[in-house]
């Protein structure tokens, strides 16, 4: 199932690249901006609940789609670019196994545990 999800996310990541190609920005903008949604991790400096809320907002595909559509209807390429970057980044994260966060821990995602927590769980099963 994880492979199926990763392939689906890879296809959507490709869609973000396609949509970016329809904009008038140079390609290096995509490479420069694709990791900027991870700045939302700064919310974890407050606490895990706030961190999860901020992180999940900037990694939610529906938010990305709404932003892109708003940019389309406003005929504003910067807003479209923002939507494409949010969407592409979220797809890339999911493709790599990083999901939306639960408020109890950064490592607890809707796709399962990540990082040290995942390793701890494996070791406990042994």
UniProtKB/TrEMBL annotation:
Keyword line: Membrane, Transmembrane, Transmembrane helix
Pfam annotation, one family: DUF4260
InterPro entries associated with the record: DUF4260 (IPR025356)
Superkingdom to which the source organism belongs: Bacteria
Membrane-spanning intervals of the chain: 12-32
Protein name (record): DUF4260 domain-containing protein
Source organism of the structure: Niastella vici
């Amino acid at each position: 199932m994880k492979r199926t999800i990763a392939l689906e996310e890879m296809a959507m990541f490709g869609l973000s690249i396609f949509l970016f190609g329809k904009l008038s920005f140079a390609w290096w903008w995509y490479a420069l901006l694709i990791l900027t949604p991870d700045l939302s991790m700064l919310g974890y400096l407050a606490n895990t609940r706030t961190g999860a809320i901020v992180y999940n907002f900037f990694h939610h595909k529906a938010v990305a789609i709404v932003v892109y559509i708003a940019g389309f209807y406003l005929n504003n390429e910067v807003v479209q670019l923002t939507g494409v970057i949010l969407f592409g980044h979220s797809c890339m994260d999911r493709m790599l196994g990083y999901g939306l966060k639960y408020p109890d821990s950064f490592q607890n995602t809707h796709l399962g545990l990540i990082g040290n927590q995942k390793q701890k769980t494996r070791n406990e099963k042994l």
